[in-house]
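Two proteins follow. First one:
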Amino acid sequence: MAEHAKAVDLAVVGHTNTGKTSLLRTLLRDEHFGAVADQPGTTRQVESARLLDAHGRALLILRDTPGLEDAMGTLDHLDTLPASGSRPDGPERIRTLLDSPAAQNRFEQECRVLKAVLQADAALYVIDARDPVLPKHRDELALLAMCGRPILPVLNFTHAAQADPAAWRTALARQGLHVSVDFDTVVPPVDGEMRLLQRLALLLERHAPALQRLQDHLQAERVERRRDAVRLIAELLVDAAALRLSCVDEPTAVAATARALRARIRAREQRCVEAMLKRYRFSAAVFPQHTLPLEGERWGMDLFHPQALRQFGIHVGKGMATGAVAGATVDVLTGGLSLGAATLLGAALGGTWQGAGQWGRRLMSRLSGRREMTLDDPVLQLLGIRQLALLRALEQRGHAASQTIAPDTVSATGAAAGPATPDGRADSVPPAQALPPPVQDLLKEARSQPAWCAIEGPAEPDERRDAVIAALADALQATLQAAA
């Protein structure tokens, strides 16, 4: 109880089906809290949850309440109740209502809401900004005001085409509510939580220190989530760049090895996607296979399809575009050597190249009739770009969202791709969206270190590998910040 006394207690209230439970899901980062449906009266009981600090102490208590359905009738009934004192105030009149038989039958749902507001420090009045301002909303606000608690209107679904938040702010001001906050639970603003807590601090001055601690904690969590996410992407890119498969230089073996390389890359990307979803506390169920699969090979469009490269603004050569064999790069070090020239060169260099480390081994492998295959640079670019696009999409997604993310229509900036040009490149994704030079330079180093690849198993301990991953994560962070 002492812990709860220190926490800020908020009742989340509003008309039926305005997104109260959706707001809690987004604030709690829990897509399973409560029940959400496109029908009225989904929440019938008062449910509560807590936001904790890094030490597990409750800083905020959130109470999800049933929707208000008959505020006008409740107000009319209040006028018929006997006064409990010579000059009863609003909270006293509400308590009289709660003690009356009507609290157990006709106005049971409204009384549950009012009881939660009386017990709270303040109320968050959730508004569906797509709805017109109606008398029922004014009645609800008048009824809630009688509880004597501060009310913060929260405008939900503000990104919808039919939303009119300006009309709502005007109507709220006429009700004496001049402080409100826009918070779309489907597409919440990046700083939405902070703005909501800042508005609350204006209304609850004595709780301002606790609300500031919560803001600091949430900001630290956000920074940590992004840091972990870019680290996951950096590890994926190093693994993909370092992956190297060898095969006999014969068409059937080359084709089979190319398929194996692509399969390993797809599976490794999928593990990265799964880890990112888990880090942002999204389940696989909200991403069906045709858009963002966690099983199978496709992510909107297959990673190795030339059209996928074009959609992200990556131009490919004619051979790759026509053959669609991305991922089958032959080591160019020995390209063009005839058999006789290769034999002569091998005899001339012999022991020198055998002792020259990985480049010597690769050359001798090529001279002995084998081929090494790595991931093409354009595909490596796409791998990084669409993981960054996924990261942005997850950061901008509320945990109440029911629509799926379609990565094949999301650009590197997180915006929807525009119509394609005749050559198939989306207008909204210019070629300049490629990974910046610092990232490409680090990946070139990773490409020369096959021992760094951890796709088949743990990589060998290597301080330089760890340093490259850390530097790559920093470069990706800078890329995200520059695009913000």
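Second one, unrelated to the first:
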Amino acid sequence: MFNKILIANRGEIARRIICTCRKLNIQTVAIYSEADAQSLYVKEADEAYLVGKPPVAQSYLNIEKIIEIAKESHAEAIHPGYGLLSENATFAQSCLDAGLTFIGPSPEVIASMGSKLEARKKMKEAGIPIIEGMDIALENTEAACQAAEKIGYPIMLKASAGGGGIGMQRIDNSDQLVKAYEGNKKRAESFFGDGTMYIEKLIEDPHHVEIQIIADSYGNVVPLFERECSIQRRNQKVVEEAPSPFISEATRAKMQEAAVRAAKYIGYTNAGTIEFLVDSKQNFYFLEVNTRLQVEHPVTEEILGLDLVAEQIKIAAGESLSFQREDIERKGHAIEVRIYAEDPKTFFPSPGKITGLQLPQGLGIRHECAIEAGTEVTPFYDPMIAKLIAWGKDRDEACKRLLDALRNYKVEGIKTNIPMLIETVSHEQFLKGNPTTSFVENYYLPKIQEIKR
């Protein structure tokens, strides 16, 4: 087992990893930008090093500096968390080249799955259902229009690299495609350094369901059930839960088998997620592979009694899985909401100082956050400041506990999306367990427009 791990991340996920490392008697090394010098995770780590100025390109994306700090601190491994460099194959390879263990899959797998076009090809080869669409990159706007006519509108225009909905847009006709193509291409180039674009057929009002898998270096792959992540805004997840209230047991079994087959085909190791879109008839189609720990991993931990970060570390240290598929028992239901520093009416970021904070307590309530009264929320990073997770013996109890907790969650000094979350988890459509990816557009945004009028 490792003696010391550097955490190449910040905020609540850095605190989450520190917590597990303490349980495993592993020392932790934090890195921080000038803007994060007073953050909770910096105070809680055993060691902390300044990595650079606030902009991520000068700090949390500075591979050379992060490797330098790891060597200076005598860390043996690096945990990338999620976001930032977590799915950067160059970073993973740089860790290995420096004699450090990268806690995640191999650089080759990260690179392969980092291209959505390459991932589509691999999944097709593995016999996994994929959405009708292109398997080659678009050359220009004219090629995009020709491909769209062949597939048939509506379609999804997508960036092959990156994630988070960047470069992705629903397109209903050729005029809209002509207007959208160059803008999305440039945005993808700006965010990911890769403006490769492609097209898929749009699946109307799908459910976004992902299978969590864990795999060791000895060929063992175990599916850890699924998470429903359908409530999104701007293609970013907002509410996640486990298990999915929508899919049947038969569909669940088929999706788990598909995820295991996919993971084995690409030689996956460590924790990862195979994501699918599921239509109204419970047909499912491959979406992408997330080659890292997910933001929503706590809901899986809550229903299975596992520590996924601990499993990640053990696998990276060369251990085999300590459990088999038949050992996994699902108990109850868990729901997670992402709390953002943003105006709930416009979704614009709301930086500033948190002048007061009250975290709700209660049975089945879990917090993942890196804020306290006095924390300065800066404009440099993702506006997600916390996650709230509620567990219950069934979905109804989890919903009730979550709603009660949200109503007692107080953040003063800045605006947050808590009002939106309360509206969402108290909505009849959500309580019925049938929210699709168009939930926010169909139910929340119209209400906001009515209030504005």
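SUMMARY FIELD: Residues 174-192 form the longest helix (19 residues). The longest strand covers residues 221-233.
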